[in-house]
Amino acid sequence: MFRRREPVPFAFLAEAESFRSNVTPPPRPRASYGEIAGRLLLGLTIVAGLVGALIVGMPSMSTPSSTTTQQSQASQGH
């Protein structure tokens, strides 16, 4: 009824999950002041772009305050 799974030909792949190394990786090098300034400048540029797009798009998203209906001359019978 139930089929048995075939043995994996690469048994070391299954054992790799349980393997733990006793070698610690080297510490990450600290970012230089130039890299930090570049990341900060990139972040500020992205935020400024989003804020600018929101400011430019605000007039098109707002509804007009005066709700006067405009009728064409054809609808008035002229």
Account of the protein in words:
Helix content is 49%, strand content 0%. The protein contains 3 helices and no strands. It has helices at 11-15, 33-61, 73-76. The longest helix is centred in the middle third of the chain and has 29 residues, at 33-61. The model has no long low-confidence stretch (mean pLDDT 78).
The helical percent reads 40-55%
Q: Care to count the β-strands?
A: 0
Radius of gyration: 33 Å
Order of helices and strands: HHH
Uncertain segments:
none
Class of secondary structure makeup: mainly alpha
Gross morphology: elongated
Q: Approximately how much beta-strand content do the residues carry?
A: under 5%
Return the average pLDDT rounded to an integer. Answer: 78
Q: What is the terminal separation in angstroms?
A: 86 Å
Keywords:
elongated
Task: Briefly characterize the structure.
By secondary structure, the chain is mainly α. The chain is built from 3 helices and no strands.
